[in-house]
Q: What sequence folds into this?
């Protein structure tokens, strides 16, 4: 049942992504709830592409400062097989969710993004990676085979990201 639900959510997200592209990205940013099961499904779905998974929050200054670099990375390399997934760990109440959407719109990000569902923080952290402490910002880079090749638990620049990602895109 969980696998089926994750597939439905993923298909809905892909449809929302297509809608955003078809409307020139003028729609409100799509923000979907995600839990530990959803993270696993997203990683599996991304196999065959280079995946950059970024965990961030609106209250995290380094997260906000690095966000434009990540958006630029996504815009520059998506056509070469890069998939960038943003997951906000802000609270998923209505007021905070609207603040996240407003931020995503300001960043001109019109691909589906995610917000952590309320629940066990420990289970969520372990689903992302057992060695991750939960500190932000956190960026995980996976190769086309789905293997973790880099984990950055700090603000990263566009140059640092490109140094990791570009060689993976050539493989």
A:
């Amino acid at each position: 049942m969980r696998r089926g639900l994750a597939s439905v959510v993923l298909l809905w997200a892909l449809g929302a992504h297509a809608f955003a592209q078809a409307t020139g990205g003028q729609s409100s940013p799509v923000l979907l709830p995600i839990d530990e099961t959803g993270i696993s499904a997203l990683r599996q779905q991304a196999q065959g592409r280079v995946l950059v998974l970024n965990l961030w929050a609106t209250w995290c200054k380094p997260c906000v400062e690095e966000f434009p670099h990540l958006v630029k990375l996504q815009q520059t390399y998506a056509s070469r097989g890069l998939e960038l997934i943003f997951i906000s760990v802000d609270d998923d109440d209505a007021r905070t969710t609207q603040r996240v959407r407003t931020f995503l719109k300001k960043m001109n990000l019109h691909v589906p993004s995610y917000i952590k569902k309320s629940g066990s923080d420990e289970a969520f952290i372990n689903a992302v990676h057992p060695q991750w402490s939960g500190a932000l910002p956190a960026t995980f880079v996976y190769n086309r085979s789905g293997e973790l090749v880099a984990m950055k638990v700090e603000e990263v620049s566009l140059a640092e990201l490109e140094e990791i990602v570009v060689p993976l895109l050539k493989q």
About this structure: The chain has six helices and six strands. Strands lie at 31-34, 50-56, 82-88, 113-116, 138-142, 148-152. The longest strand covers residues 50-56.
